[in-house]
Amino acid sequence: MQGSSRAAAAGSREAFTGVLAAGADRTRLAEELFAVVALLDSNVTLRRAVADPSHDGARKTDLAERLFAGRVGAEALVVLKGVVSQRWSSERDLSDTLERYAVESVIADAETQDSADRVEDELFRFERIVAADPDLRAALTDAQASTERRSALIGSLLEGKVTPQTLVLARQAVLSPRGRRFDSVVREYLEIAATRREQQTATVISAVPLGEQERSRLAAGLSAIYGGKVHVNTVVDPRVLGGIKVEIGDEVIDGTVIRKLDAARRAMGA
């Protein structure tokens, strides 16, 4: 985001946090904000009208009131008016911010049930499963397949096996990627979750699955190193042979056996 959009995002957040603090139905709020984003994406005239920087905030909030009152709940309308009242550098920045608030609403709902960690784990694992199965990936991302068919496929894979919040985000990522690849959408959702929860996320790659105690010790160690909470996602890759590889932010800590063997081969060939 450019400067004015960053300021707009900050300015609109008060409306969103106020709605959550007042006890809004987070599930409904997320559903309605996702629906508004879909409408804005599909209607260029409406999108330009609510994002036009030449119009003052009052004019745009009046437009939002006329168009959406009665179509969305009072809480979603408050958030929408808080967003459109700001001055945005681009139309996409406005709709991206609404999408972000929808995702945060889902995570906030999980927080009330103490299941936010589980949602992050499940969403991460689902993305890895899709990435590892070309046929599944093709079926989920096939633009020629009907929405109903792809939604049913997601349901068959996840319903009853993951939290309701994970199912919402997985379905949204598949059915409404907004021009992005599925893995990119999931990565953005996980980044939003991490930012909301004021934590960093580490991806740990190992040759064998890590037990809960190992994972907890690793998370505690990384938290001590980087400061603040660190959520650990794990990936099993037999090719590393042994040891672990940790990716956190832009940093990579590679303590795998395969890396050491590669270093030894390079040294012998030097």
Automatic annotation (TrEMBL):
Reported function? F(1)F(0) ATP synthase produces ATP from ADP in the presence of a proton or sodium gradient. F-type ATPases consist of two structural domains, F(1) containing the extramembraneous catalytic core and F(0) containing the membrane proton channel, linked together by a central stalk and a peripheral stalk. During catalysis, ATP synthesis in the catalytic domain of F(1) is coupled via a rotary mechanism of the central stalk subunits to proton translocation.
Cell membrane as a keyword? yes
Locations listed in the record: Cell membrane; Membrane
**In the UniProt record, does the keyword Membrane occur?**
yes
Q: Per its record, what are the GO molecular function terms?
A: proton-transporting ATP synthase activity, rotational mechanism
Give the family per the record: Belongs to the ATPase delta chain family.
> Which cellular component appears as one GO term in the record?
plasma membrane
The UniProt entry lists membrane topology as:
Peripheral membrane protein
Q: What is this protein called?
A: ATP synthase subunit delta
The protein's organism comes out as: Humibacillus xanthopallidus
